[in-house]
Amino acid sequence: MPDQGASMQDRSRTPIPTTTAQTTDAAGVPGPDPTAAPPLAARRAGLLVTLILGGLTATPPLAMDMYLPSLPQVTRALHAPAATVQLTLTACLLGMALGQLVVGPMSDRWGRRRPLLAGLGVYVVATALCAVAPTVELLVACRLVQGLAGAAGIVIARAVVRDLYDGMEMARFFSTLMLISGVAPIVAPLIGGQILRITDWRGVFVVLTGVGVLLTAVVWTRLPETLPAAVRHAGGVGDALRAMRGLLADLPFTGFMLAGGFTFAALFAYVAASPFVIQEIYGASPQTFSLLFGVNSIGLVLVGQFNGKVLVGRARLDRVFGVGLLVVIAAAAALLLMTTGVFGEAGLLPVAAALFVLMSAMGVTLPNAQALALMRTRQAAGSASALLGTSSFLIGAVASPLVGVAGEHTAVPMAVVQLAAALVALAFFVGMCRPWNKRAGVEGAGS
Question: Which residues 6+ apart lie within 8 Å of 233 measured at CB?
């Protein structure tokens, strides 16, 4: 990074230095030799860049969670069934999945800044159109475009982290990002609930538009380019596909990608179903739902910080990920037993407690899955990040409508989807990543 005497405009255009020694990564793409690392000062994000990356990773929870308390209101206002309104979540998630698949390779070819700024600009326009959508069909379409454009922030933020960090430092930085971006799911439903006190669901999208404009301005003026032109991929779509094929041929990378994706599906089943479960089944107000959602997010953030500050460097990341998965499975199983009436009629408190445990466990599963997968590649970070994001969001998009197949008056589908997704994640993790085998692990996975 430039010294303190450089202006912020100069910083936004100065590449992060990189080494010239060459090796190949899991994708078979030539890249820097990790043994020839640049100086630490050149490979560390400053506080401002860290906050910007946190803001970019907070885009999905902002777009999703601020809107959640208004889902029942959208159902009534647009005269649409709950399953159709939940498609507004699915469309946004699907757009984020497909958008990452495009933007990731673009950022490997043209650098991080240009694709990011273009995506943020389209995101702002699409969000503004959501605020004036007259029908649920048009709202679904606008949410799809919003997701496609918003994908730029998600995939490029991960790629920037891979540009700057490696090994345990990367895992720690992901946990730091979870602290920053974790504020969004805490405050977003609370803000959404308060917005509904003074306006309707359209006002939520007006606020999201303003946030998008602010983030675009900060990225334009303050985010430096982290991928120097000398190490960018000059090839086209064919080279990008070959890089992705090489990554997918690496079993541990694919295993962590799929395990993380299905874990994310368990999380998104909660995101999609909890507004109806908490408000319609248990009769809570939008403000109460927002409070519970915020408490769960606090649990996720605190466990994520425990992971980054205590566990990383002291325990193998793959084993920590496995323990987190087992906790998710136990919480989902308990939730299924409660919602099916095995323990009698369960009230809101025990259901909320099970959801809190499940969400808190995400603090060790999600960041470690990303770090473990990205450790498998030293170059083509944009393509690797795109595969991680696309798989997670596609699997999550499938989970969203499944939680509403039985209507608004039962929480059983949510628990079934969460348990099934976590079990599939465990199967991929054990079968492809082989956590019992140190030689099958990844660089930096040891204590």
Answer: 29, 105, 108, 109, 239, 240, 243, 380
Distance between CA atoms of 444 and 447, rounded to whole angstroms?
8
HEC readout, 11-26: HHHCCCCCCCCEEECC
pLDDT digits (tens, 9 = 90+) for 28-52: 444 444 333 343 334 455 777 888 8
Distance, CA of 436 to CA of 38 (rounded, Å): 33
pTM of the model as a whole: 0.67
- DSSP, res 30: E
- Tens digit of each residue's pLDDT (9 = 90 or more) over 47-84: 778 888 888 888 777 787 788 788 888 888 888 887 78
Burial of 298 per CB tally in 10 Å (0-12, 13-18, 19+): middle
381-402 helix and 82-110 helix, angle to the nearest 10 degrees: 180
SS3 31: strand
Q: Are strands 22-24 and 30-32 parallel, antiparallel or unpaired?
A: antiparallel
Nearest-angstrom CA–CA distance, 36 and 45: 19
CA atoms within 13 A on the CB side of 121: 7
378, two tokens: 């030293």
407: phi > 0 → left, psi -120 to 50 → alpha, else beta; which?
left
